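User: Sequence in, structure out. Go.
Assistant: Echoing your sequence, followed by the structure tokens.
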Amino acid sequence: MNVIAIIPARGGSKGIPMKNLAEVNGVPLIQYSIQHALECAEVDRVIVSTDHPKIAEAAKAAGAEVPFMRPTELAEDHVLDHPVFQHVLEYLKNKENYHADIIVHLRPTAPYRKPEWLSQCIKSLIEQNEADSVRSVSAVKQHPYRMFKIDESGFLDPLMKHEHPEPYLLRRQDLPTLFYYNCVIDVTRYQTVMEKGSMTGSKIFPYIMDEEEVVDVDTAIDLEIVRSVYLNKL
């Protein structure tokens, strides 16, 4: 099986300008994800899809392949993951006659991953014949049973009222265990991306992670937290 890691890293981040090159402990964020993929024995190739020459330069210096510059139309704010990954896989097929069986999606905004996590996710997808993909998840902290919308009259409207008449009044121990997608690791079959037109498919197998080990840099505050709290882990 050919296993390829793809790291999407466009240059147009607005919250933190050039976020993917923001340094943590003197190392650009993107380098951590590249290193995670390189350290995974199951991964054959590590490819970065970027539209920015400085990110491409940093990626190559860290050991990743940058076989092309991402087209401008695939680097805009509104573009989702699927067309970006489809572009990578089509390029490799057309230019190199290379076929990837399993695709590992690593976001450069997650600088902390244990080496064994990637291996476990890849092996889970191989073992789960019916699964279209594997996604890392963690138990929720803010439970949806205690969440509300505000209706048109200005009153609180419980999100989960279809599950219980007063879901927000349930005891903590009576709340069902729910999980959120933590954006740390995705592993997907080639067929899911190219034939089903999806990054996940309908059969998603969970890889459950401890919430305390989840790091995802989205805001400037997240970046400062990583710089101050997680240095001993990176």
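User: And one key feature?
Assistant: The chain has one domain: 3-129+181-202+212-229.
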